[in-house]
Amino acid sequence: MTDTLEVRDPELPGRLLAAERDTLVPLLRSRPDSDFALPTAACPGWTVRDVLAHCSAALMRVVENRFEKGVFSPESNDRDIAERADWTNARVVDELERGMTEAGPVIARGDGRLDMLALGEWVHAGDVREVLGEPGAYAGAALPDALALLVRSTRQREHVPLHADLDDLDEPLRLGAPAGDGPPARYIGDAPTLVRLYSGRPVSAAAYELAGVRERELNIFG
Fold first, then answer.
1. For residues 73 and 49, what is the distance between their CA atoms, to the nearest angstrom?
2. Which of 20, 52, 149, 167 is within CB 3.0–4.6 Å of 190 for a Cys-Cys bond?
3. What DSSP assignment string belongs to 62-104?
4. Which residues lie closer than 8 Å to 148 by C-beta, 6 or more apart?
C-alpha cells in the first residue's frame, strides 16, 4: 500500500510546477484572446484570465518574498487580479511562465509550508484545461507528483483518514491522519476525480464511490 513519504522531498513542488509549465504555457500561447475571457466553473466569478493572473501573482509573491498580512486571502487575490487588469494576456502568461520556473527553487529552500502552493497551481491549471476543452484536466504526466503532495499534505493536516483504491494506480493510497480504532473512509474511482474531491471541484456522481465521509469534508482548499 502506498503511504505518505515521511521525509520531505524539497524538489517535488518545483518538479510539479516545471512539468505543468512545459505543457500549459505553450497551450495558452496557442489560444485566441477570446478564450481568456471564458468563465471558469471551478472558480465562480473568475475568467480563465483571472485564474491565470491569480496563479502568476501567487508565484511571484514566492519568488519576491512578498507576504504581507492577509496574503492569499480572497481580498488579496482580488487585488492581485485587479493590478493586472491592464496587462495583455501575453504578459500574464509570461509572468506565469517566470513564476513556474523560479518559484520551485525558492520553495525547495523553505521549510515546506509553501509546498501546497504548487499543488494549488497544478489544480488551477486543470481548471483552465477543463474550460478550454483540453484533455488532461487534473491528470497528465505530473499526476504522480501531485498525488504525492496531496497525500503528504493531508497527513500533515491530520485530515480525515481515507483509503483510496484508484483505477489508474496499482496500489491504493492512504490519505489523512492514521485511521485509529475505526476504519478509514473509502474511495473507489480514478485519480483525477479524487483530486477534484480534495480541491472542491465539480465531479460526476457516477464516476466514483465514496463511503464514510461527505464530499465537502475532503476539500483541503475550502
1. 19
2. 167
3. HHHT---TTTTSHHHHHHHHHHTTTS-HHHHHHHHHHHHHHHH
4. 5, 9, 12
Instruction: Please give the grid coordinates belonging to residue 3.
Output: 503511504
Selected residue with higher pLDDT from 206 and 117: 117
Encode 6-42 in three state secondary structure. Answer: CCCCCCHHHHHHHHHHHHHHHHHHCCCHHHHHCECCC
Quick one: which H or E segment has residue 164? strand 162-166
The single-letter code of the amino acid at 3 is: D
Q: Which helix (H) or strand (E) holds 106?
A: helix 89-109
User: Where do we find the cell 520553495?
Assistant: 107
pTM for this predicted structure:
0.94
46 vs 51: CA distance, rounded Å: 6
Q: Which of 60, 57, 46 is nearest to 83 (CA)?
A: 57
Residue 222 has pLDDT above 80, yes or no: no
Cell numbers for 11, please give them.
524538489
How far apart are alpha carbons 137 and 27 in whole angstroms?
A: 13
